[in-house]
Structure formats: C-alpha cells, structure tokens
Design goal:
Layout: H1 5-14, H2 21-42, H3 73-77, E1 83-84, E2 87-88
Antiparallel strand pairs: 1-2
C-alpha cells in the first residue's frame, strides 16, 4: 500500500492537525516506511509459530479500587479556554 502526501494531508485534516510542508514530507516518508515494514512482515512464514501476547510470562497486576473525591468543578474549569455555565465550550468538529 502506498501512502502519499495527499492521504496524509487528508488524515491530518480529519484529525484537526495542521502540518507544515516540511512536517508533511517527513510524516509521509515515515508512514510509508512503516507500511513497507508491515509488508515485509506479511511475507514471513509463521505457520509453525504459536501465538503469544508477550515474550515473557506475565500476569496482570491489579490495584485495589479506592473511592476518592473528584476534583471540584471550579478547579477543573480553571484552565478551560472557553466556558458556558459549568461546561467546556469546544469548536464544532462535525461538518
């Protein structure tokens, strides 16, 4: 699969990320390198390899759930760029 600058530009627009031309060039090359590497991995014969999620035996370590007080609304909203009553105001992202 080939990835070009227009595809990266389109994905950046969807993600609301502004890319400078130099960044667009670099990111396009990096993403193409990643896809090329994945294509190489697809060519490997892995029929005899058992599936694994980790190379070392591991168990989940769970912590005990503890109920704590939440942050006060005033403190949460202190750094908000825009507010309406007790809510964050964000730009519309659905066109």
């Amino acid at each position: 699969m080939a990835i070009d600058k227009e595809t990266v530009k389109y994905a950046a627009k969807l993600a609301r990320i502004e890319l400078k031309p130099k960044e667009l060039e670099k990111l396009s090359l990096q993403l193409q390198d990643t896809l090329d590497f994945i294509d190489q991995l697809k060519k490997l014969d892995i029929k005899e390899i058992n599936p694994t999620s980790h190379i070392l035996p591991m168990n989940n370590v769970f912590r005990e759930d503890k109920i704590k007080d939440s942050l006060p609304i005033k403190k949460v909203l202190d750094n908000a760029p825009a507010l309406e009553r007790n809510f964050f105001v964000v730009p519309k992202v659905i066109e």
